[in-house]
Amino acid sequence: MFSSTTARKSVDSLSPWSPTSPAEFPFHPQSPTASHARVRRGSTASSIHSIGGQLDSYSGTWSHDVLETGQNAISTLLQPPIVRTGLQPHTAAPASSTHKPPTARDIPPVTLTNVPHVDASEFKPYLTQVGALYDQLRRMQESDDDVNEQALRRGRADDFTGARDDGHLRPGTRTSSSTRPMSATSARSASPIDSPTSRAPIRRRASSGYARKQAHGPPPLSTIPNVYFDGTFHLENPRTFDIVTEKSEVVTPAPGSATDKKSANGDAPAPRKALATNAILQEKLSWYMDTVEMHLISSISTASTTFFTALGSLKELHSEAADSVKRIKTLREELAALDREIATSGLDIVQKQRRLENMRQLNNAIRQLQDIVESVARCESLVEAGDLPGALDNIHILENLIAGRSVTASTEGTGASPQLRDLREAVALQGVNDDISTLRYRIGKAFESQFLEILLGDLRRHVSEGSTREVLLRWSSAAMRSRGGHTRDQSTFPAYLAKTDDLRSQLVPILVGLHRSKHIAVAIASYREVVMREIRNLVKQPLPTSHDDDNESMISASTANSKRLTQQEKSSILARNLRALDEQDAEELFMKMYISVTETLRRLTTQVKILFDVASSIGETPTPTSDQSPSQLKSPPLNSANRDIQEEIHMAMDMANLLSQGVDTSQDKIVKVLRVRSEQSVRLPLVWFLRYFTLNLYFANECESISGRGGISLKTVVNAHIKDFIQSHGDAEKQKLAQAMESDQWSAKDFTEEHNVLLGRILESSTKDSPSWTEGSQIWLSFSECQKDGDAKANGRPRAESNGTAKEKVRSAIIDSEPFILPNSAILCLEGMSHFLHLVTGIPSMASDISASLVAYLQLFNSRCTQLILGAGATRSAGLKNITTRHLALASQALAFISTLIPHVREFVRRHAASGPHVNNASVAALMGEFDKVKRQFLEHQNNIYDKFVEIMSGRATVHAKTMRGVAWEQETETKVNVYMEILVKETVTLHRVLTKHLPESTVQFIMSPVFDSYKGQIGSSLEASEAKSETAINRMESDINYLIARLGKIDGFGTTGDHLLNIVKSKRAAQAAVKSSPEAQVENKDGNSKDLKANGTTDEDSEKKPTDNSSSN
């Protein structure tokens, strides 16, 4: 149909019929038909023929494919484009004048690519997968063809239906295609310009009926592209313009321009048609306008009958409405006449009756006002007379009278009671309402004063009549229960729960009056203030005076009045008086403050419970309001009024807050007193401090039980006192021990029954606490009752040491049938350990700190014992001449005694340190390790003393061995035993006697065995070194050894010492028989004997001096 492929490509490349919405550009809208007004009225036959040539499915040019093989050569692309009309543009120059055809030299050689051969079997998996999809596509194409055929058969009816949609003319086929996804085949069939291959099936299926439909009616709207039916159609939009003009060129490029050169060189795409010469496009636009016009004419002709019918119906309705208006006007005139003749005269009578009724009500209201004024005066007189319940009853009647409710009192007059009105909103009664409020407030204040007087009097009576012993016993039982202990239950209720019947009977009328006067909240608030003020006074009353009595007695009254003490001076005097209190007075002061405060708070809780109980038994129903009828049913006794009273009391009292404030206020003031007496509290004796601690502990527990608050400030101060006391107590005990050890004579002391009691307590402490250590915490008993002995310990202070010179009976301490003869230092250490354990029992929470102080105390005893005995410090501090074996033995016994007690103390400490709520197992284990370390130190000290015994006797043996070497054995003497041997035996016997008296047999044997071993070695070596040339010398040696055996042979540990020495002597006898004497040897022997006599004399003097000292010391 077209002369060139270039023109065909320009038409096929357009796709303006797709249902997409192109973007708009903000240009001024222009009518799409205005630009074609000149060409619209062309030849109708030519327009139809032209459009039919493009849209008719019977066109023969689309039935076959166009071969383009000959037009794809490179030389063809260089020629100028051919427009749709088949004419060359007049502005284009011939191709031969502008371009030279390329030659074979200009065309580069083409390298052919080897195409690999692929076996057809490799495509089988792909064909198998695509085959099903291809079959489905074919079925869809066939179904779309059937749908298109049915759409063409619907004809004009479908087109008219589509044109009426939304008041616009639209193609009918577009609606169906927009409701489902459009397939490829349906898209091709719906497009007005399709490819020849896509329109071939439609041509085959179409019959001659379609041509007949076209002859009998206008072409369908589906032949017009969708872009013309778009609501946002603007021709100035470039995209819309391109679609409408089918991408035609508005201005043809000039010859020789860059665009023309690119198109001549083949670089630009296919050329576009010129809009001015595109006759086919103009015919299309004319065809579209004619088609729309024909459909509009058809639609108007179809709707004209219905329009004129509706117009006639509207005229009939107008006429009927006018007739109705006339009839309504006539009715109104008749009604006005009836109103004038009948209704107006009747209304006059009704108005006169209403006026009469209003006059009667006015009279009743005036009489009601008169009664109200009289009732107010009556209420004021009752209040002045003190009849508070009667005044409340009259106020209740007055309020009912004002509210228009019936009253019980009969009104004046013999006639019927007037009808009452609600006058609460009357302006004349505003002052009466204020008077009623004032009267109710005065009544409430009167009830409030009675309320406060009763409750405050009950509190003071309870505090004054309360038993201190009973309160302290109750505190102790509560503390034992908190620690999991067993206590004896009291047979009676606490005092703060007793004597409530009288209080209840007194509170019932007062609480009713407060409720009726609406004064409960104010009274409760005043009661809170009174309670807080009373608590402050309870702490302040027991304190000493804040003025100096002595100074006041020295001055006159006039001088006293002229000299007023400042607050700072009063505070300093009060602090001085507090510090001057002794232990007994301070304890009584704190007891009185603590008990009065806690018992007041306890009784306060009881009073609040009584208030709730009384409130629940009032049983008064709430006053009905104006919107309630007086004839309504009353609530049962337990009603909302009771709950309202209880809730009001609960909200106003705020018991938890009140108790917390009371506890905090009292503790703040008490803490100030405790801080003033901090130094005196820390320096208290042990028993007094334990009582002080127990009292504060019970008070803190009671406060926490009452209010639920622990009292951080009070606990902080008391804990600081405890730590300071532990430190000062440890320092005092160590100082006392050090002073006693320095002045100790290290002689055996009698272990009395009192000491046995202390020892028994410590031995039992590993499994249980001694009752005497807990008796000090029984603060409900006086201090004099707790102390059963009248000695120096009655005041809780350490006993004074008695260092009398008179000889007293010495008794030993026995532990597991093992006796210990102890010096005064060991007994004093025993008492100090008992004090530490007593302190741990009283304050188990501080067991770790007290135990650390106890460990330091034991270490001090060990170190001071080492300095005084092994270091000979006692010769300077106690005036001892020298340190004897008796001193060493007593020191060893003291160390053994204390080391035996350490395991029991260790178990006692472990039992208390591991029983607290916050146990640190690591610290407990470390503390147990410290006790084990101290015990090892004591054992090492004992071993050092035992070594000292052996060292002393070894030194004596060395001296005697030296003397033995200087003896003239050949000289005959009258004495059978030499002096050195007598002295040695005497010193050994003395040592054994001292050790046997003070040490166990096993320890004595342990010491004597190395002593005899030293004898064996040193005396044996001296015997071997001595020369025995005669029988006399041998006999003297043998006599000394036999004397040694006779005196010391029965001592444990002597062993083979005598036999060893006798064997040495016997060996000398055998050697003498074999040796012959010579004259030179005899001369030498005489000279040697004279020298030995001199040396022997000197040695004997030295030897006699030493045992004399030892014997005197012993």
Your description of this structure?
- There is one protein chain.
- With 1114 residues, the chain is an all-alpha fold.
- The protein is 67% helix and 1% strand.
- It contains 41 helices and two strands.
- A two-stranded antiparallel sheet has the order 1-2.
- Strand 1 (813-815) and strand 2 form a beta hairpin.
- The longest helix is centred in the N-terminal third of the chain and has 107 residues, at 279-385.
- The protein is flat.
Quick summary of this structure?
This protein has 1114 residues and is an all-alpha fold. It is built from 41 helices and 2 strands. It has a two-stranded antiparallel sheet.
Please give the radius of gyration in angstroms. 67 Å
Count of beta strands: 2
Main sheet makeup: 2 strands, antiparallel
User: Which range does the strand content fall in?
Assistant: under 5%
Helix content: 55-70%
Helix segment count? Answer: 41
Supply the helix-strand structural class. Answer: mainly alpha
Give the neighbour order of strands across the main sheet: 1-2
Uncertain segments of ≥5 residues (pLDDT<50)? 1-97, 155-215, 409-415, 550-562, 620-638, 789-806, 1076-1114
What is the molecular shape?
flat
Cα separation of the termini: 158 Å
Quaternary organisation: single chain
List the helices and strands and how they pair.
Blueprint: H1 5-12, H2 37-40, H3 44-55, H4 74-77, H5 95-98, H6 124-154, H7 156-164, H8 172-178, H9 184-190, H10 196-205, H11 209-216, H12 238-244, H13 258-265, H14 279-385, H15 388-403, H16 430-465, H17 468-482, H18 501-516, H19 520-540, H20 549-554, H21 557-562, H22 567-579, H23 583-616, H24 640-653, H25 655-676, H26 678-682, H27 686-707, H28 712-743, H29 753-764, H30 771-775, H31 783-786, E1 813-815, E2 818-820, H32 824-842, H33 847-870, H34 874-877, H35 885-913, H36 921-965, H37 979-998, H38 1001-1025, H39 1031-1048, H40 1057-1074, H41 1079-1113
Antiparallel strand pairs: 1-2
